[in-house]
Amino acid sequence: MNQSERRRAIERQHLSTRRSVTIPALASIFSVAENTIKSDLLFLESQGVAVCENPNGKPQRWFAVRSKDDLEMTLEVACAIKRIEKTARVLLPKALFHEVECLFNAANDAYLSKQKVNHRSKVIRYDNSVSDIDLMKHLHRGQIAAGTLEEVKSAIYTGNMLRLEIDECEEVLGDVSLVEVDEQLFLEGNMCGVSGKLQRFNTRDVSSAEVIERPLFTSLRNRAA
Fold first, then answer.
1. Are 53 and 101 found together in one domain?
2. Which residues contact 156 (CB under 8 A, 6 or more apart)?
3. Most C-beta atoms within 10 A of its C-beta, which of 38, 90, 131, 214?
4. Quick one: DSSP state of residue 12?
């Protein structure tokens, strides 16, 4: 095996973004001197293929450079992948999760970099508003209906208003958000037509919800006393 073939084999068969490889290990595999492998890795580093995580370490740990083209993603995709990481970590076997962990790392990196340049994005606003709430837990416990949850999420994401039906009465809220208190889920927002008045409802009490694009100027039924 000549030099070019060996370097090509190192790049394609031994370098990984997830697992490191060392110079002694490669020297043993290819039956060459460690200085020869070091020269190969330095060449691959100059080509943007390999990277040494600990240049002063003994032994050095070498990885493949992650392909930016392969893992380039939009903010929306990065947010979606980032939000399922905990679920994947719990449900997948450790070895399998380790195989796809680079995808979640790439999603987190992309999310953080795009967050800095687009912090007012609808995606960022939505993610910040629900990041500390386990929506699946409340859904499974019956603390919020699936249809209501979909409308609430849409209102938070779009910034539109939300019309609720509670105890056979209607309420319209703007600046909608979800709040978790003592394991209970609450819907919070400013009442339509009542400037600055913040209202909070337990999501268990909401019988239906509907996103509306603009405030309703028709009179709403008063809540029952």
1. no
2. 125, 126, 129, 130, 176, 177, 178
3. 38
4. I
Q: 140 and 198: one domain?
A: yes
Residue range(s) defining the domain that contains residue 187? 135-212
Residues 6+ apart with CB under 8 A from 47: none
Tokens of 205: 């009490």
Q: Which residues lie closer than 8 Å to 16 by C-beta, 6 or more apart?
A: 63, 64
Q: What is the pLDDT along the chain (225 residues), one digit of tens a residue?
A: 899 999 999 998 999 887 889 999 999 999 999 999 999 999 999 988 899 989 888 899 999 886 544 567 889 999 999 989 988 999 999 888 887 887 888 888 888 888 888 878 899 989 988 988 999 999 999 999 999 999 999 999 999 999 999 988 898 999 999 999 999 999 999 987 656 688 999 999 999 999 998 654 444 444 443
* CATH number for the domain that contains residue 45: 1.10.10.10
Largest CA distance in the chain: 88
Helices (H) and strands (E) in the chain, counts: 10, 7
Residue 224, domain member (yes or no): no
- The enclosing domain of 196 has a CATH number of 2.30.30.100
Give the DSSP H/E element, type plus range, for residue 192: none
Residues 142 and 193 in one domain: yes
